[in-house]
Amino acid sequence: MFRRLIQKPTFLVTFQVVFVQTFTVLVFAVQAPLLGPRAFGLIALVMVVVGFCESVVTSVATDALISVKDIEDLHFATATAVTLALSVLLGVLMFCSAPVIGRLFGDPTLSPVLQWMAVLPAISALWVAPNAKTKRDLNFKPTVTRAMASLGISGLVGIALSFLGAGVWALVAQALVHRSIGAVALWSVVPLRFRVTFSRRHFEELRRIGTPLLAARCMSWASGQIPRFILGFYLGTVDLGLYSLGARFTDILVKLAIEPKAVVARISFRRFAGERAGLDESARRLFTNASALCFPLCIGGAAIAPTLFRVWLDARWQGGIFAVQLLLLSCIPYVTYYCTTALLLALNERGADVLTATLQALTVAVAVLIAAHFGLNAVAGAISTALLGLLPVPMILLKRRCGIAFGTVVGAQLPTLAAALTMGAAVWLIAGELRANFSGIVFLLLLVASGAVVYAAAITVLAPRLVREQMQAVFVVLGSTAGEMPKRG
């Protein structure tokens, strides 16, 4: 059974995400009390620039390579050449503008940190070709290998330097080591020859596919990174560090609960591009499965956040509790956004995805710009409200472009949302009863265990169809394994 399980793309993507996020949380758990919010705020500002390269340039190149119907080696070589050239240019601009940016934000440490991190875009560009190759082949084992090698070594480097008192430079070294080892490890395990060659014909084919994606990726990047820039400018690096903690939690939640299913759907749903029969039911399962894991994590995380902060972090971080709760709750509409994007891209409806991403980025940016004058909690609330308010947009586009009804999208998520809300209310009530007798880590573990039990019971009652489907999937795997056992004997 285990051999069959590890061959499934969804399992491999999920395993990679779980490993990456678990290890990242463990490293952060050690570093946060040692470094404080200011160090993480500085890195968050730097990643606004670096994130453009990784979230836009390399992401568009990767998606273009995935979408090419008849791929050739020169597609990979050309994508590497173009991406590397653009990334080097961005790195040079980042290095040269570092003194100006440092003065703009009034932090003398920001300028040298930016200059050291200016090499990251070029390193990240080296990931494009092998990363696209693994996704095209639905072979995610190489990316798991890369993640384990790069994160393991860079995490140990970051922790060691944090204990040695390196401050923000521990995070700088950690990022450089992570990207460098990741690039080497990925190329070493992917059956693809490293080439940096430009072919005009292959570039034009990639450009035709990638250009419609560019606007969407720019808007997606703006939606996530512009709030950090505004916060850093108006509230300073300490509040930005507190915001980054909430953003880190939401990123972990999205990557753990939503992205693995969306990544696989982005590729597997291409079979519906010519024939839409069965699309509605497959979409229902996608939204249901993503929400079943996402909703309890974000609502339960918001419920236990005050206890987690008291157990884990010192007084420097306590001002971020309410903002973290609001940001965690903002992940509820992300199920619709991410699953819709996967469906639209799989069915070659890139224009609709661009429209959604553009509206989301503009709305979030305006909301943050207005709310920044009122503090960190107002910003977190504005982001959550903006994401929730725009939720009808992707559902309308999904109906018009793909023929998927509102009832499919909403109905797939309502039972799991009701179960998660039941769990959140139960945890809140249980916390009031247990607080008098327990404290610290024991109190936190009891809340987590109670939430898991309540959600399991609630989802069984409110979403029996989901439970039956999951049980049937388990029995299919067990039955297939049992059928293979005599052959092995």
Structure characterization notes:
This protein has 19 helices and no strands. The two termini are 15 Å apart. It folds into 2 domains: 190 residues, no CATH class; 255 residues, no CATH class. Helices cover 84% and strands 0% of the residues. The longest helix has 59 residues. With 489 residues, it is mainly alpha-helical. Helix 2 crosses helix 3, helix 9 crosses helix 11 and helix 13 packs antiparallel against helix 14.
Distinctive features:
about 500 residues, mainly alpha, about 85% helix, about 0% strand, globular, disordered C terminus
Give the SSE string. HHHHHHHHHHHHHHHHHHH
Distance between the termini: 15 Å
Helix/sheet category: mainly alpha
Q: In what range is the share of β-strand residues?
A: under 5%
User: Segments where pLDDT lies below 50 for 5+ residues?
Assistant: 484-489
Question: Mean pLDDT across all residues, rounded?
Answer: 84
